[in-house]
Amino acid sequence: MKSTRWGLIFTVCIFFQLALQAQSRQKAESAFLKEINNVLQHSQDAGLSFLYNVNSMLVDSPFVIKEGIISVAVSYVSDTDTIRIRAEAPVSHLNDIGYDNYLFILLKDEAVTQNEYKAGDKDYKKTIKKNLLHIGTPIKDGYGEQENLQKLLNKLLKYYKQE
Fold this sequence. Notes:
five-stranded antiparallel sheet, single chain, alpha+beta
């Protein structure tokens, strides 16, 4: 009888610990996504318009994390064409926040899959594997934003193990 009671107490403690950990991970994900989406929404360019000779960028789908995968979709629009870029990567491969003219996430390896679509196409035009994920142009102080995003990324990565 006594061992059953201790087993029940142990099970309840484990359950609450797992529930708290899941809640903490969700908070870390939300905080990180809020900040990178804020940069993305205020950005005229997520860092790739020079490749496509375009006038503007539209956010099709902001950054989200689902089942351990972070993804984003943007469209680059010119007078004659629209190119949609969808990029995704495992959160466990994220490493650092970088900054030059743009803020971006560096990965430990080439784990970003970037699919490129032309307007009206159902299938992707090309797929690129790379080691960085563009966020966008800084809103105010690029180095300050880089530091803040790095802190949020570090908190997030505590909940993801390297695969």
